[in-house]
Amino acid sequence: MSKRILIIDDEDAIREVMQGCLEELGAWQVLTAGSGREGLQIAQAEQPDGILLDVSMPEMDGFEVLRQLRETPDIQHIPVLLLTARVQFDDQTKLAQWGVIDIILKPFSPLEVIDQIATAFGWST
Length: 125
Known about the structure:
By secondary structure, the chain is of the alpha/beta class. The chain is built from five helices and five strands; from the N terminus they run βαβαβαβαβα.
């Protein structure tokens, strides 16, 4: 059975490119959400095996989504990778406490991102 991954990003182009990469190159099932609120609903309903979460989104940023994920018993176990254009984070300890496994920098290489995700989540490609 293929792994299911949820992409939460407010940019349509990023979601589309990432979805294509993950489905074609990773052979994973992909769910997408255009906002943090929608992502939380999909995570709860669908229980994906992993989440790719954009940091910079309007209304509810990635850190608020992450906080709510970790406070919701049904979905707090789902591993998360952050998607961001920011190279530095001030508080690496906080990211680790929140269960952030790794950070994917935008722009990303479609071929390399599959390996990065598979390695971070412990999945084989």
